[in-house]
Amino acid sequence: MKKWGLFIAVFFMLTSILPGAQMLNASKDEDHHRQKFKTGLEMLMHDQISLLKGKNVGLITNPTGIDRNLISIVDVLYNHPDIGLKALYGPEHGVRGSAQAGQYIESYTDPKTGLPVYSLYGPTKKPTAAMLEGIDVLVFDIQDVGTRFYTYIYTMAYAMEAAKENNIPFVVLDRPNPLGGEQVEGPVLDPAYSSFVGLYPIPLRHGMTVGELAQLFNQEFDIDADLEVVKMKGWKRSWTYEDNRLEWVLPSPNMPTVDTAITYPGAALIEGTNVSEGRGTTKPFELIGAPFINGDDLAKALNEQGLPGVKFRPASFTPTFSKHAGKLSHGVEIHVTDKKLFQPVLSGITLVKMIHDMYPADFAFRAEDSAGRSFFDLLIGNGWVRDAIESGSSVEEIVSRYDEKLSEFKKLRKNYLLY
């Protein structure tokens, strides 16, 4: 009898230990996988340096173009004995990331390398033939944030066009999408609302890497450049940015953290209104408010919607610049509680509609341009969402209206996924 008691005790001990051991082994396997992860830049330098060896290189980058040791790709290529780095090209915010949103930087000489730096923002968004003179290959290495209206992906597209027109190969060094690569969300852009914050008919949250987007742009929108994408090694579409084991470098002055990027696809819709999106605070796109809002009321109303993976906290702040600068504003702070469940576009549309409905006398969309398009329309990618909000349509009705085209894009997107 004692032997049976001992047997049963050992049995239960083993059954309790084995699942834990299996989980530990799985965790170790995942950790080992993360350690093997490499960006496109790292893969270029280790395995595909022949793409640049012995050639005059033009480089489109900003502070996010770094290796695992936080060394800029500018220095990596400039100091390589077999690569002739000849020119730098800066997107919005510049090569060194020193300019605020919308601020134009003229072309200049980089003080560290002495190389010419050409601006691809402002009057010249597309490299001219003169800017590309003597260049054998163009390289793009910038961290994107996974949202349609972030302008770097269109800097890439215009540069691909210029490369095609001037018979120059174009190399994209791929980097992770900080929103992950599985979820796709939001309305697909109506071509009638094409602009530099939305050039092509893709959804607000596209779920693609820059390398995948480059292939889609090149094929679907007839750029037809001589394109080479240097893939990452070991990236998983399900990963958050933290899983990549990479340091976050500000892609732009108002994108200070990964958390900013997570809320950005929806919270940035507030830019199309007279409500502050948190510019001029330490938490842009996480703090939302205006002097006319009651933060307690707004937070309560938003939390009652039961939006997945997010909570809203009443918050007050005083922006130091941009909308309501120097004025005490009230509203909410967006707290993402589950990044995998969170739907930023759904939350953003709900946020805009809620403020519109609660403060009809004070809330306003930004003024229309000569073509009848508000900046909100350019961000959301159509004119009908604004009309739907103003006419009292529900968020569910708005989402159901854009679902069909979103499903079509998801099918198209599959043809260009690299991971």
Provide structural commentary.
33% of the residues lie in helices and 14% in strands. The protein has 419 residues and is of the alpha/beta class. It folds into two domains: 40-249, 3-Layer(aba) Sandwich (Rossmann fold); 258-382, Aspartate Aminotransferase, domain 1 (Alpha-Beta Complex). The protein has a seven-stranded mixed β-sheet with strand order 3-4-2-1-5-6-9. A three-stranded antiparallel β-sheet has the order 10-12-11. The chain has a two-stranded antiparallel ribbon with strand order 7-8. Helix 4 crosses helix 5 and helix 6 packs across helix 8 (344-358). The protein is globular.
Topology:
Blueprint (H helix, E strand, L loop, with lengths): L1 H35 L3 H8 L8 E6 L11 H6 L5 E7 L17 E2 L6 E4 L17 E5 L10 H14 L4 E4 L11 E4 L14 E3 L4 H11 L6 E4 L27 H10 L19 E4 L4 H9 L6 E8 L11 E8 L7 H15 L16 H6 L3 H7 L4 H19 L6
Parallel strand pairs: 1-2, 1-5, 2-4, 5-6, 6-9
Antiparallel strand pairs: 3-4, 7-8, 10-12, 11-12
| Residue share in β-strands | 5-15%
What is the CATH domain class of the largest domain?
Answer: Alpha Beta
Q: How would you write the strand order of the largest sheet?
A: 3-4-2-1-5-6-9
State the shape: globular
The number of domains: 2
- What does the main sheet amount to? 7 strands, mixed
Annotated CATH topology of the largest domain = Rossmann fold
CATH architecture of the largest domain: 3-Layer(aba) Sandwich
What is the residue-mean pLDDT, rounded to a whole number?
Answer: 93
- The CATH fourth-level homologous superfamily of the largest domain: Uncharacterised protein PF07075, DUF1343
Q: N-to-C terminal Cα separation, in Å? A: 57 Å
Cα-atom Rg, whole angstroms?
24 Å
Low-confidence stretches: none
For the secondary structure, the number of strands is: 12
Order of helices and strands: HHEHEEEEHEEEHEHEHEEHHHH
Structural class: alpha/beta
Count of alpha and pi helical runs: 11
